[in-house]
Amino acid sequence: MLDKGKISTRELTIIVALYMVGSSILIIPSYLAAYAGQDAWISALLSIATGLAVLPLYIALGNKYPGKTLAQYMEDILGTWLGKAVSLFFLAAFPFTMAAFSLRNIGDFMTTQIMPDTPIQAIHIIFLIIVIIGVRLGLEPIMRAAEIIFPWFILLFGCFIIFISPQIKWENILPVLEGGIRPVIGAGIPFTAFPFMETAVFLMLFPHANRPDKVGRALFWGILIGGAVLLIITMMSVLVMGPDTTARLIYPSYMLARKISIGNFLERIEGLMAIIWFFTIFFKLTLLFYISVIGFAQSLNLKEYRFLTMPLGIILIVYSILISPNTSFWFEVYPTWALHAITLGLLLPALLLAVAAIRGKGAAKAAEAATASEGQNQPDT
């Protein structure tokens, strides 16, 4: 194991919750409202349920190869060379590409909402330097930092919801299911893929859990907490601004914070939402970059991973610029990304588990045949 750091069940729950919220807290309400209208919250509920339903697949696959990461047991399941090829493709196309999108989301948000005159490349470089420092320190410091930050995240998010609650208009979510169930499901499928199918990357962290028997419980509560935050922010966006306004905005939750007004004294505290988002996106990006670096090192049979952080960081900066030509590109590619995420986050683990089961049965039959043959060849006494 390149990094021998161990993580507790509590730390795993927290990092999963922060990962789930990630950049989704800013952009998901807009997409859901655009397709499902006032029923966006129903789409969110269905997506959470689907994400939790897929969890047993990851648990079964991870428990089948205890002490190994996804990149390592791909070689056991598919063979050395095919396993390495599939592992490298998975790492490049999934966690590394998600890291590029996350970094681009940071740059787009900063250059459109907070620092419009700053070059996006400068923001990417500064943010990624902090991420690289965290990755080089190892998994345990990342988890300890998440454990320290998480109560502040909950406190800030709770204050945000309390401050915006007086502006709720319950009529904004009526009538329920006006367009039927199809728009709800149509909006829920991409939301299920992003971010719920992306939790497949946590298969890379299974060996680091100090209580392997509690990993499933940690993932369940992490997904549930993160999904609940996204459900609440989607509902508040629709209840306060209405489905049409929410759908037209790129960052509806950030604009929602601008509507906070308490006694003509507490107003325009959108910085609160920005801080919440910086917390979650930092840990998501750091975790994705860590998983990518560790996975590449394991697939290439390297004894050290830290020297990969700088070259991969430079590649990530360039990739994040090339992957998205403009701010609205993510909304155009979102349905396509959903298919991509379902393929790598659901179909690939299911295929690996099926192949592992078939090969396991084949090995068991071969062992039984060998034992029977040895018994027949033994002379009678």
TrEMBL record:
It holds the Pfam family Spore_permease. It is found in: Membrane. Gene3D superfamilies: Amino acid/polyamine transporter I. The keyword Membrane applies. The keyword DNA-binding does not apply. Keywords: Germination, Membrane, Transmembrane, Transmembrane helix, Transport. InterPro entries: Spore_GerAB. The chain crosses the membrane at residues 12-34, 40-61, 81-101, 121-139, 146-164, 184-206, 218-241, 274-296, 308-331, 337-358. It is a multi-pass membrane protein. Belongs to the amino acid-polyamine-organocation (APC) superfamily. Spore germination protein (SGP) (TC 2.A.3.9) family. This is Spore germination protein. It comes from Paenibacillus apiarius.
